[in-house]
Design goal:
The complex is a heterotrimer of chains A (587), B (296) and C (384). Chain A has 19 helices and eight strands. Chain A has 587 residues and is mostly helical. In chain B, the strands form two sheets. A two-stranded antiparallel sheet of chain B has the order 1-2. A two-stranded antiparallel ribbon of chain B has the order 3-4. Chain B starts with 5 loop residues before the first helix and ends in a 16-residue tail after the last helix. Chain C is α+β, with helices and mostly antiparallel strands and 384 residues long. In chain C, 30% of the residues lie in helices and 13% in strands. In chain C, strand 14 and strand 15 form a beta hairpin. Classes of the chains: A mainly alpha (587), B mainly alpha (296), C alpha+beta (384). Chains in contact: A-B, A-C, B-C. Strand 4 of chain A pairs antiparallel with strand 5 of chain C.
Chain lengths: 587, 296, 384
C-alpha cells in the first residue's frame, strides 16, 4: 500500500472498545467472514471531515435527492403515465365531465383521493427545486474557494453533469401530470426542437411519436424521469462521493492546517450525527413546505389543450434563464433556399445553454491552462485572494440573474407596474453591460479587501480607541492581530510575477511556441495571466512584516509614558488575562 | 363657605374642577361633533334618488352629475374630447350603454385622476344611486348594453347536477377565453406598454358580466353573440367556485405560477437550510473552565 | 512533488522554507508567518459541568420524544381529516381556509423529522467529543512503483493478446463492433413517423406540418360549445376563440369524428381567433382583400414563435400578444410582428359566408401553421 497510515488519527476519547462477545459482535463477524469489510471500515469509520457551514451545501443536494427518491416512489404507485383519453368523474367537481389524459386524471386522484398524496406531490416538487438550487450554490462555493483545482477537476465535471441532469429531471418531472402549464412548456420544447437545422423535424417527430402532441410523449418522459436519468444521477452521485472520500475534503487554511493534512472531526460519531441529522432537517423542511406552501396546483390549470394557455406561463425557476434569453432575443430568421433557419429560437435556447454548460464543464481546465498551476491543492482560497476568478463568476451570476429576471418579465411588469416592452428593451442591453460592470466592481472590491487584510497584518487592527497626543493630534490605536488570525490572512500562495514574463515566452511546460496558432494562443494566455494576476495585492514579505512590527513597537513606546504602563498589545486578544490592568491612567 | 346658594357653589366648584381636567376638552369636542353630525343628517338635502323616479328624471339627475364630474374629459354631451395632437382626452360615450358606466364608475376606475397606461381601480367616488343616474344619462345618449339583472348571472333554479355542469363548462370557457390575459386563477397578467389584465379575485359578479359585455379599456368585448349570457353566467360561477374553494395544498403563494414558487423555494427553502447549516457548523459555547482529562 | 519539474519556477507552497530565485533575480521570501499549530482545546460547558451535561442530555431526549409525538399526530391526522368527503363529494376539511389534511400531515411529518434532526445535531454539538483530529493526506496519484507495475502488466496482457502483432484481427474487430452501432440506431427509427411519411399517408385529417384540418366550406365554430357563427353575432371589438367544425363533429355512429391523437393534433394547428374591427382600420395584405368578411378577420391562434396559443388582444390597437414570450402581432396589418421574438406573421384563414349565412373557411391556410422548421419554405407563402 502506498498510503501512509502511520499518522491516521487514533481515538482521542477515553472509551476503550473492549471486545464484546455479544450479538452485534457475532453478526459483524459473520458478515466480515463473507465480505471482508473490516479493512475498508477501519480506514473510513474515523475519517476526518473539516467543519464549515459552506461545506454542507452539497449535502443539501444529496439529501434532497434522497427525499426525491422516497417521495417519487410513493407517487409512482398511483401515477398513470398514459395519454389515453378519459372523461373525469372523480372528486374535483370543477373538472367533472371534462376530457383529459389518464396521466392528468391520476394526478388529480393523487391530489384529492389519496390521503397524503397532495403532500407527497408537493414535497417532491419542493425537493426538486431545492435539489437544483443547492447544486448551484454548492457549485458557487466550490468555485469561489478554488476547490475545483487539481486533483478535483473531474469531480467538478461530474458535478456539472449532475446539475444538467437535475435540470432535465425536473423538467421531465413537472411535465408528467400533462396539465396546461407544463403542456405549454412541452409545446415550446417542440418548437425548440423544430428550430434546429436539418434534423429538427426528425427530432420532433421521433420524440413525440409523430406530430405534436401525439400520445407518446408522457410515457416516454415518464421512463426518462423514473429510470434513465435517476440511474445516471445515482451513478454520478456515487462517483462524486467516492472521489470526495478518496481525495478527502478540502479545508480552510488556518492554525494546524497544511496541504498535507485534514483537521476536523471523525466520521463516527460526529459526522454521522451531523450529516444524518441534516438529512432529517432537509426532509423535515421539505415536508413542512409541502404541507404549508402550495406548489403546482394542477387542478387549477386544467388538462393540457393546445388551444388554451395561461398568462404567466413560465417553466420552473431553473429553466428561467433560457426562457428569458428566448423572450428578449430579437426576431431574426433566415429564409434561404426554400428553408428556414430560426436564429430567434436556435441561439437563445440551443446555442447559449450549450455554450454556458460547456464553459462550466471546462472551467477548471481553462483555469489550469491560464495559471499553469500543476500542484495539488487541498487548502481553500478566500474568494478575495483570487479576484479575477471571483469577478468572473460574479459576472456570470449577473448574466444568469438578468436572463432569469427577463424570463419573468410579465410578472415583474404587473407587480412593479412597468411596461413589458421597456423591460425587454432594457434586458437586451443589460445582459451585456451588467456582467461587465459586475466584473469590474467585484474585482476592485476583492483587491481592496486584500489591501485591508495586508493593513491588518502589517499594522494591526483598529481598536476604536482614539488617542490624543500632547500636541493635540488624534490617532487610533492599532493592536496586533492574534497569531492565528494573522496566520490565516497570510496562509495563501503568492501569485506568479506575470509582469516579468515575456509575451510569447515558454509555456507551462517550458516549451517555446512556434507556428501561428500556438503563438497566438500563447499571446492570449499571457494576456489572461496578466488579467488574472497583475492587479492582485500580494501578502507581505518577512521584511515588510518586520518593518510593520518595528513601527508598531515604536508607536507603543511613544504611547506608553502617556498611560503609565507599557501596553504589550495583547489586551484584547485573549493572550493573557487582563484583570487588574488599567488601560488608561485614570481608570 | 356656606351661602343660600351653597349647593350651586358646591356644584359649580365640582364642575369647574372637572372643566380643568384634560379629558374635558376631548369630551367637548366629541359633543360638538355629534351635535353637528346629527343636525347635518337631519337637515342636509338628501341626494339619494327615489327608487320610484322615472328614467327621465334619473337621466336628468345624471346629466347634472355628468357635467360636474365627467364632461371635462368626455365632453358636454358625452361626445368625447380630442387634444390638438390627435390624442384623446376621453372617448365618446355614445353607445357604450349603462353597463359600461356601471362598471367603470362602480369599480372606481372613473373618474380617472391621472393619465397613464391604464385606469386602475380606486375607491368608488359615487353612491349607488348616483351611479344609476349617470348610467341612465349615458344610456340616453345612444343605445348600448344595459346593466344586467342579477338573474342573468345567477345559478338559482338549476339542479345540483346542472350547477356542477355549469361550473365545469364555465371553467373550460374561462381557460379558453380569459386565462391568456387574466391567468389561470384570475390573478391578472401583463399586457403591452404597461397595461395589464387586472386581478379578478374581488370583482363582483355584476362587474364581471359588464366587463365581458362592454370590453373596458383594451379588453375585447365578449358580446352576447360571442359568449352567450348562459356562458357568461357559467364563467362567473366558475370564478366564484375558485374563490370559495379551500387552498388545498396550503397557502397559494399569490397564484402567479412558477415565478413566485421559485422565489419561495430560494428564500424559504434554501434560506432556512443554509441557516441550519450555519448553525450545525457553528462553534459551540466555550467554557473557561478546564477539565482534568482522564488517562487517554 | 516528483513530477512537477515541468512547471514554472517553483512558488512557495507546502515546503516553503527554501528561498528560490524568481525572474528578476531577487529573493522570493518565505512565509512571513509560520503555522502556529492547532490551538489549545477549549472545553464546552457540557464537558466541564455535569449539570449542563445532564441538561443537554434531557434536551436531546426531549427533542426525540417530541418527534415521536409528532409522528403519532401524523397517524391521527391521516384518519381524522377528510379530503374528499369520504369518497363522495368534495366536503374537504379545512383549517383557516387551507386544506386541513395537507397542513396537518405536512406539519406533523415535518416536525417529526425536524426534531430528530435537531436532536441529532444537538447531541453532536453538545455532547459528542469535539476534539479536533488530524489525519494525513496522501497524494492523489499512485506511487511510481504502482504506475510502473501497472504499465508492466498492461504491456504483458496486451502482448499476450497479440493484438498489436495482429492488425487483421484488430481491424476486423473494430469494424464489427463499429457496425453494431447501426442496429442500435436503426432500432429507434420507429419511434415515430416522419413528416414526409405522415403527409404521404395521412392517418387522420389534416396530417403533416403543411396542412391543417381546415377545408373549403368548413364552418368556424365557437370553442368549447361548438356552435357556428354568423357575422351579425360579432360586434366591433369582439375577439372570439374558435375551432374548425370538425373538432366537434359527431359521426353517424354517434362517436366523435376526431378523438384522441387526431383531435389534439387538429386543435394544435386548427385553433383560430376571430376578431371584428372597423373595416376601415384593416389593411389587408396583398391578395387578401376578400379574406375578411365585414371587418371580421380570422387568424391562426398558434404563435409562429414556438407554438403557444395566443388570445391576448388589445382591442383598441388590435395587437395580439402571446403570453409565453411576448411576441406581438398587428391583426389589422396581416398579423405582422410588431414586437417580440416571433419572426413571421400569424397565418390568416380566408373567410367567406356560406349559403346559410355562417362563417366558413375558403380553404385551408395558405402556409404552414405554427413554429418554424428547417423545411419550411417561407418564400412560398402569400404573406410577408
Amino acid at each position: 500500500m502506498s498510503i501512509d497510515t502511520s499518522k491516521v488519527a487514533t481515538t482521542n476519547s477515553t472509551a476503550a472498545i473492549a471486545s464484546k462477545p455479544n450479538r452485534a459482535g457475532a453478526l459483524a463477524e459473520w458478515a466480515d467472514d463473507r465480505l471482508g469489510l473490516a479493512t475498508l471500515a477501519k480506514k473510513n469509520l474515523r475519517k476526518v471531515f473539516p467543519d464549515h457551514w459552506s461545506f454542507m451545501l452539497g449535502e443539501i443536494a444529496l439529501w434532497s435527492f434522497v427525499v426525491l427518491l422516497l417521495s417519487g416512489v410513493f407517487l409512482s404507485l398511483w401515477f398513470t403515465p398514459s395519454m389515453g383519453e378519459t372523461t373525469y368523474e372523480g372528486t374535483y367537481a370543477q373538472l367533472r365531465g371534462i376530457q383529459m389524459s389518464e396521466a392528468y386524471a391520476s394526478a388529480l386522484r393523487l391530489s384529492f383521493d389519496v390521503r397524503g398524496g397532495l403532500l407527497m406531490r408537493q414535497i417532491h416538487h419542493w425537493a426538486a427545486m431545492l435539489f437544483v438550487g443547492s447544486m448551484m450554490i454548492h457549485l458557487l462555493r466550490v468555485f469561489f474557494t478554488g476547490a475545483h483545482r487539481k486533483p478535483r477537476e473531474l469531480n467538478w465535471a461530474i458535478g456539472a453533469l449532475l446539475l444538467l441532469l437535475g435540470t432535465l429531471e425536473g423538467f421531465t418531472g413537472y411535465s408528467l401530470p400533462d396539465d396546461l402549464l407544463s403542456g405549454t412548456g412541452i409545446r415550446a420544447a417542440d418548437g425548440f426542437l423544430k428550430s434546429q437545422p436539418v434534423i429538427g423535424t426528425y427530432m420532433s417527430f421521433l420524440l413525440f411519436g409523430g406530430e405534436f402532441p401525439g400520445d407518446q410523449i408522457i410515457p416516454r418522459l415518464f421512463i426518462i424521469h423514473v429510470l434513465l436519468i435517476p440511474g445516471l444521477l445515482l451513478a454520478l452521485i456515487t462517483a462524486h462521493m467516492l472521489l470526495l472520500v478518496y481525495h478527502k475534503h478540502t479545508q480552510w487554511p488556518g492554525p494546524g492546517r497544511t496541504e498535507q493534512n485534514v483537521v476536523g472531526f471523525p466520521m463516527l460519531p460526529v459526522y454521522a450525527a451531523k450529516a444524518g441529522g441534516f438529512f432529517f432537517i432537509v426532509f423535515g423542511t421539505t415536508a413542512l413546505m409541502g404541507g404549508l406552501l402550495s406548489i403546482n396546483p394542477v387542478w387549477k390549470f386544467g388538462p393540457y389543450d393546445p388551444s388554451k394557455v395561461t398568462a404567466g406561463s413560465q417553466p420552473d425557476w431553473y429553466m428561467g434563464w433560457p426562457d428569458g434569453a428566448l423572450r428578449i432575443m430579437p426576431n431574426i430568421e433566415t429564409h434561404i433556399w426554400h428553408h428556414t433557419i430560426s436564429w430567434n429560437v436556435l441561439l437563445p435556447i440551443i446555442v447559449l445553454p450549450s455554450a454556458m454548460f460547456g464553459l462550466l464543464l471546462m472551467l477548471p481546465f481553462i483555469e489550469a491552462w491560464i495559471t499553469g498551476d500543476k500542484r495539488d491543492h487541498h487548502l481553500l482560497q478566500r474568494p478575495r485572494n483570487a479576484p479575477t476568478r471571483t469577478a468572473f463568476m460574479v459576472s456570470l451570476i449577473t448574466m444568469y440573474g438578468l436572463f432569469w429576471a427577463a424570463g419573468g418579465n410579465d410578472i415583474i411588469a404587473i407587480r412593479l407596474h412597468l411596461s413589458i416592452n421597456q423591460i425587454t428593451y432594457f434586458m437586451r442591453a443589460a445582459v451585456f453591460i451588467g456582467p461587465a460592470i459586475a466584473f469590474f466592481i467585484t474585482k476592485r472590491w476583492c483587491i481592496s479587501l486584500q489591501r485591508k487584510d495586508n493593513e491588518d497584518v502589517l499594522h494591526g487592527y483598529e481598536t476604536g480607541i482614539i488617542m490624543r497626543s500632547p500636541e493635540g493630534g488624534y490617532s487610533e490605536r492599532h493592536l496586533p492581530l492574534s497569531e492565528e488570525r494573522a496566520y490565516k490572512l497570510t496562509a495563501r500562495d503568492r501569485d506568479p510575477d506575470v509582469l516579468g514574463e515575456l509575451e510569447g515566452g515558454p509555456d507551462a511546460n517550458g516549451v517555446e511556441p512556434h507556428g501561428g496558432l500556438a503563438a497566438r494562443l500563447a499571446g492570449v494566455r499571457h494576456r489572461l495571466r496578466k488579467l488574472m494576476y497583475a492587479d492582485n495585492v500580494q501578502k507581505p514579505t518577512v521584511h515588510e512584516l518586520d518593518e510593520g512590527h518595528h513601527h508598531a513597537e515604536h508607536e507603543h513606546e511613544l504611547q506608553a509614558p502617556m498611560e503609565g504602563h507599557a501596553a504589550d498589545g495583547h489586551q484584547f486578544d485573549g493572550h493573557h488575562l487582563v484583570e487588574g490592568e488599567k488601560l488608561r491612567a485614570d481608570d | 363657605m356656606t351661602s343660600p346658594l351653597g349647593f350651586l357653589n358646591r356644584s359649580a366648584g365640582r364642575l369647574s374642577r372637572h372643566r380643568r381636567r384634560p379629558i374635558a376638552g376631548l369630551l367637548l369636542l366629541m359633543l360638538g361633533l355629534v351635535l353637528t353630525g346629527t343636525l347635518y343628517a337631519a337637515f342636509a338635502p338628501s341626494s339619494t334618488a327615489d327608487s320610484a323616479k322615472s328614467d327621465d328624471e334619473l337621466a336628468a339627475q345624471g346629466r347634472k352629475l355628468f357635467l360636474v364630474g365627467c364632461a371635462f374629459c368626455h365632453g358636454q354631451n358625452g361626445e368625447g374630447v380630442s387634444t390638438q395632437d390627435g390624442n384623446q382626452l376621453g372617448p365618446s360615450l355614445v353607445g357604450v350603454g349603462s353597463a359600461a358606466v356601471d362598471f367603470q364608475v362602480g369599480t372606481g376606475r372613473m373618474p380617472a385622476v391621472q393619465p397613464g397606461a391604464q385606469n386602475p381601480t380606486k375607491p368608488v367616488t359615487y353612491t349607488d344611486d348616483e351611479i344609476a343616474a349617470l348610467a341612465a344619462y349615458v344610456a340616453s345618449l345612444g343605445p348600448g348594453p344595459a346593466v344586467p339583472d342579477p338573474s342573468d348571472y345567477s345559478l338559482a333554479g338549476l339542479s345540483e347536477k346542472e350547477r356542477e355542469e355549469a361550473v365545469a363548462r364555465g371553467g373550460q370557457i374561462f381557460l379558453t377565453n380569459c386565462t391568456a390575459c387574466h391567468n389561470f386563477a384570475g390573478k391578472g397578467g401583463a399586457m403591452p406598454r404597461g397595461g395589464y389584465a387586472p386581478n379578478l379575485s374581488d370583482t363582483s359578479a355584476k362587474h364581471i358580466y359588464e366587463a365581458l359585455l362592454t370590453g373596458p379599456g383594451q379588453m375585447d368585448t365578449f358580446s352576447n353573440g360571442n359568449l352567450s349570457p348562459e356562458e357568461k353566467r357559467d364563467v362567473i360561477a366558475y370564478l366564484y367556485s375558485l374563490r370559495e374553494q379551500p387552498q388545498y395544498g396550503g397557502f397559494d403563494l399569490g397564484g402567479m405560477g412558477p415565478v413566485s414558487e421559485g422565489l419561495f423555494a430560494w428564500i424559504v427553502g434554501i434560506g432556512s437550510l443554509v441557516g441550519f447549516a450555519t448553525w450545525i457548523a457553528a462553534h459551540t459555547a466555550r467554557s473557561s473552565r478546564k477539565k482534568e482529562e482522564a488517562a487517554a | 512533488m516528483s513530477d512537477d519539474h515541468n512547471h514554472l519556477p517553483e512558488l512557495p507552497g507546502d515546503d516553503a522554507l527554501d528561498a528560490h530565485t524568481g525572474h528578476g533575480g531577487e529573493l522570493v521570501p518565505e512565509e512571513p508567518i509560520a503555522n502556529p499549530g492547532l490551538p489549545e482545546h477549549e472545553w464546552r460547558p457540557t464537558d466541564v459541568d455535569p449539570n449542563a451535561e445532564k441538561r443537554a442530555e434531557r434536551q436531546v431526549a426531549g427533542l426525540f420524544a417530541l418527534s415521536a409525538v409528532c409522528a403519532v399526530l401524523f397517524v391521527v391526522s391521516y384518519f381524522a381529516f377528510q379530503i374528499n368527503g369520504g369518497g363522495g363529494g368534495q366536503t374537504v376539511d379545512t383549517v383557516f381556509g387551507l386544506g386541513a389534511s395537507n397542513v396537518a400531515l405536512g406539519a406533523s411529518l415535518g416536525f417529526a423529522l425536524l426534531f430528530i434532526g435537531i436532536g441529532l445535531i444537538q447531541w453532536a454539538r453538545k455532547l459528542m467529543s469535539d476534539h479536533e483530529i488530524v489525519e494525513m493526506r496522501h497524494p492523489a496519484r499512485s506511487s511510481d512503483e504502482d504506475r510502473a507495475e501497472t504499465l508492466r502488466v498492461l504491456d504483458l496482457g496486451v502482448e499476450e493478446s497479440g493484438i498489436t502483432r495482429r492488425p487483421l484481427i484488430r481491424n476486423s474487430l473494430l469494424g464489427a463492433v463499429g457496425i453494431l452501432l447501426a442496429p442500435a440506431v436503426v432500432m429507434l427509427k420507429d419511434l415515430g413517423k416522419t413528416n414526409a411519411q405522415i403527409e404521404a399517408n395521412p392517418p387522420y385529417p389534416g396530417a403533416g406540418l403543411e396542412h391543417t384540418v381546415w377545408d373549403t366550406g368548413m364552418r368556424v365554430v365557437r370553442d368549447v360549445v361548438g356552435t357556428p357563427i354568423r357575422p351579425g353575432d360579432l360586434e366591433i371589438g369582439d375577439l372570439l376563440n374558435a375551432e374548425p367544425e370538425i373538432v366537434f363533429e359527431v359521426g353517424d355512429d354517434g362517436k366523435p369524428v376526431l378523438e384522441g391523437v387526431s383531435l389534439q393534433v387538429a386543435k394544435s394547428k386548427g385553433a383560430v381567433v376571430l376578431v371584428r374591427m372597423d373595416p376601415d382600420d384593416n389593411k389587408p395584405g396583398p391578395g387578401r382583400e376578400n379574406w375578411a368578411v365585414d371587418g371580421i378577420l380570422c387568424y391562426s391562434k398558434i404563435c409562429t414563435h414556438v407554438g403557444c396559443p395566443i388570445s391576448l388582444n388589445e382591442r383598441k390597437t388590435h395587437h395580439l400578444l402571446c403570453p409565453c414570450h411576448q411576441s406581438t402581432f398587428d391583426l389589422a396589418d396581416a398579423a405582422k410582428v410588431v414586437f417580440g421574438p416571433a419572426a413571421r406573421p400569424l397565418p390568416q384563414l380566408p373567410l367567406m359566408v356560406n349559403d346559410e349565412g355562417y362563417l366558413v373557411a375558403q380553404s385551408d391556410f395558405k402556409e404552414p401553421v405554427g413554429p418554424s422548421y428547417w423545411e419550411r419554405d417561407s418564400q412560398q407563402s402569400t404573406s410577408k
